[in-house]
Write the structure tokens for this entry.
Amino acid sequence: MNKEIICIVCPLGCRMDVELDGTEVMAVQGHQCKKGPKHAEKEVSFPGRILTTTIKTDVPEMPLLPIRSNQEIPKDQLMACMKEIAGHPVKRPVKLGEPIIQNILGLGVDMVACRTMQ
Amino acid sequence: MITHDVDLAIIGAGPAGMAAAISAKEKGLENILLLERAEYPGGLLHQCIHNGFGLHYFKEDLTGPEYAERFTTQLNEMDLRLSLNTLVTHLNPDRSIVAINPEWGEFEVLPKSVVLAMGCREKSRFAVGIPGSRPAGIFTAGLAQKLVNVDGYMPGEEFVILGSGDIGMIMARRLHLEGANVKAVVEIMPRVGGLVRNEVQCLHDFDIPLLLEHTITEIFGNHRVEGVRIAGVDKDGKVMKETEKDVPCDCLLLSVGLIPENELSIEAGIELDERIGGPIVDEYLQTNIDGIFAAGNVLQVWDLVDNVTLDGVKAGTNAARFAAGELKKQPNEIEVIPGENIRTITPHKIVGSEDVEFALRVQNPIQNAELRIGEKTKKFRVLSPTEVVTVTIKPSEMEACRESGKIEVSCHERKE
């Protein structure tokens, strides 16, 4: 099976034609440096993203607290995480970097505060 | 009217202004006043909750609020004076400032030096001239970003986004994550306006359709947006009528570019670069008025906040050097001439005899590029109009230019 993966390592943005056997990369074409195949490998074996979003607070003058995942979350779990976060309003005070939701959906990833809320 | 005598007044406490204040203080300036229109420092960083900030400056991948807090913490620790809820209404050629806030009413600031750090603002519907009625539901992408990320409102349910700049693409993902239906991102150019990583991680990841070489020719709806008409454009940018298609939606976001915010600069008689919209500056980031410096997006719209911070550092440091009488000017000024394939470049002139850092944007994407700055050449694998490049030149590399009073900058494909 072949899949197009755009390399995002540099602004060149090579469109790579990646030949796959299941989740194993067999061949890569269209890249212009060795970083391309490495990126393709990662996109195929663990397509993860940092999730950044907000969570409701009990503070009227700051209704939302920005939060992020402290590690990458599998791409196909991002929407499920958004649903989970919606059900957890947060109370003040909060320190920068404090875990707001630990081990979200059992993924081993914490959602942490991106700012202080006094 | 209360009058404040200060060494340095900084207009705007976003990333550029905060960095300028911290650097000026580190350089020994004591009496610094930051004037900020909003009720908190940090500027737009608070609404930019996505990551990708600080990769260059901190070598870390931070979100906007995290990046801001690094600086706001430092402002507090260094005991820098910050006047919030403060609108600057006038800037005069003698550097005096008139401002207004709830605490002091209308007041005057008499600074020895000024850093302009007002940032930029978004182009609106009228800048791109979309015909049709004027219903509710048309937002600039940044305004929608504030509503969703700071205030907690969803401005609509079904979105079309015009323009594929970074904010437009980032908002497409954000709205999708919050449960909205993003029907299309429409871009008149044959390539996205923003960074490749945003095209992949914001649009492809969520299968959000991207219509390149398309535009919006009409907005429907009287009270509320009911839809838009999307059409393809030919290679000259002309609308191809036969490709028109109506797409229902209740919200249209515009991500069609940013303009440096320079009303105050104009009033003070600061000369602007018509192409960029920001002040004409020398390598110290000093404008045509001695002691008035410009930093960050008010000078030119950067892609990365890291560059905005570096601008602030430079302007703040030089404002302190100006106060100490350390900013030396050579008798012969060198004019910077943008040549082939250069869209924008700063600084516009070279007045001193120190290293000069140029920041430029090319006109068209170019592979195997060779950048020529006077006698110096530098090779790049690729240069793209979506990214500002910075190159530093030593005074010894500009000797010849000092004779002629000119330095030309151009970008060519390498012939090998």
Q: What stands out?
A: Chain B touches chain A at residues 46, 49-51, 61, 63-66, 68-69, 149-152, 177-179, 195-197, 199-201, 204-205, 367, 381-382, 384, 386-387 (CB under 8 Å). Chain B has three domains: 1-122+257-327, 124-256, 330-416.
